[in-house]
Amino acid sequence: MSKITNDIRYIGVNDHELDLFEGQYIVPEGMAYNSYVILDEKIAVMDSVDRRFGDQWLQNLELELQNRKPDYLVVQHMEPDHSANITAFMEKYPAAIIVSSAKAFTMMKNFYGNEYTDRRIIAAEGTELVLGTHTLHFIAAPMVHWPEVIMTYDEKDRILFSADAFGKFGALDAEDPEGWACEARRYYFGIVGKYGAQAQAVLKKALKLDIRVICPLHGPILQENLGYYLDLYNTWTTYSVESEGIVICYTSVYGNTEKAVQMLADMLKAKGCPKVAVNDLARSDMAECVEDAFRYSKIVLATTTYNADIFPFMRTFIETLVEHGWRGRKIGLIENGSWAPTAAKIMKGLLENCKDTVFAESTVKILSAVTEENKNQIEALADEMMQ
Ligand code: FEO
Question: What CATH number is given to the structural domain containing 286?
């Protein structure tokens, strides 16, 4: 596992104890914090790992060093899941130098009280670091995922060290029956989604390089069929439709809104919709629902009027979409309200500034329970969503 090329080894760790990644994302299959070491005339270590695994990471490194000492610690990203062991590393190897962006050194002082003014190289776009036969080229990657991020290209082995990009949820020793894209998509839209334009700009720079291997900071090392991953990242960073289909996201208090949703889903399937995904926002992982909204071409939102507003899970969902730059989709609305239904109007208002979105003209208005008239409205909405 540890050997990636003759000179490059994996020294990262798997985390099966974490409940919420970054304090909000469930990770039922755990998480990997990747780190790498490049063994040349000079030795460079690529990032550290989460603080709870510092000892294990330093042991992994020692095994690969075989009594040599590292010359450089390349810090591509200052988020603590990668930077937490900088101090321990610098104390253990007092001759080592940190290579990172100017912004990262400011963050280093803020996080760990030291910006290493006498032990550092500032890496900007185009900076090179010669290790011997390997030359590292640094690429500025602001907002993928923080402003200080750099990526690194190793010319000799044609490896892109891609920081958080091309990462996914899940430990490297966990089962992955759904395949890379499932948890990579949830990860991308949750963590980077808002900054599609910046991610697209970095992707364009990367596409000019001859890349044979992608080494991200989370998830598997990508060595085969790289076009598949690059194409998906092109789709995601441009907010393009990945899969034709309709996702229905709903909340329901007593089951009446849910009944309307099931009717709509059945009608859409009967009319030949290639994929209908149905999510109960109160009972599903919110990040999965957000992922589906970015994945599919159309969305239907169904909720109740609540406290003269909309049901809280729906408000959170819509606000998360808006905050992440969601755009370019057709939207259908179903509202329920026993005395003063205003949910459709409120949902429309929340979404109206999303770029390139179109609302279906047919709206379903339920006044408590689903009526025959509602069935006709649902049919009309289904027809319009299929157009
Ligand atoms: Fe994996 Fe943005 O840290």
Answer: 3.40.50.360
Domain assignment of residue 3, yes or no: no
Q: Is 79 in the pocket of ligand 1 (CB under 6 A)?
A: yes
Instruction: Return the DSSP state at 145.
Output: S
**Mean pLDDT value across residues 44-51:** 98
Cα Rg, the chain, nearest whole Å:
24
DSSP for 148-205, please give it. T-EEEEETTTTEEE-TTTT--SB-TTS--TT-HHHHHHHHHHHHTGGGHHHHHHHHHH
- For residue 2, tell me if it sits in a domain: no
Q: From the CA of 146, give the closest atom in ligand 1.
A: 2
Q: Answer with the one of 237, 262, 289 that is the final residue of a domain.
A: 237
With a 6 Å cutoff on the Cβ, whether 217 touches ligand 1 is: yes
- Is 50 a pocket residue for ligand 1 (Cβ < 6 Å)? no
Residue 250 one-letter amino acid: Y
Residue 24 has pLDDT above 90, yes or no: yes
Whether residue 284 sits in one domain with residue 219? no
Whether residue 219 sits in one domain with residue 138: yes
Residue ranges making up the domain that contains 346: 243-386
- CA 163 to ligand 1: nearest atom: 1
- Residue whose C-alpha is closest to residue 13's, from 57, 78, 79: 57
Tally of domains within the chain: 2
Question: Which among 197, 216, 237 is the end of a domain?
Answer: 237
Q: Name the closest-CA residue to atom 1, ligand 1.
A: 164
Is the Cβ atom of 218 under 6 angstroms away from ligand 1?
A: yes
Q: Whose CA is nearest to atom 3 of ligand 1?
A: 79
**pLDDT tens digit sequence for 346-366:** 999 999 999 999 999 999 999
Residue 145 alpha carbon, nearest atom of ligand 1? 2
CATH classification at residue 25: 3.60.15.10
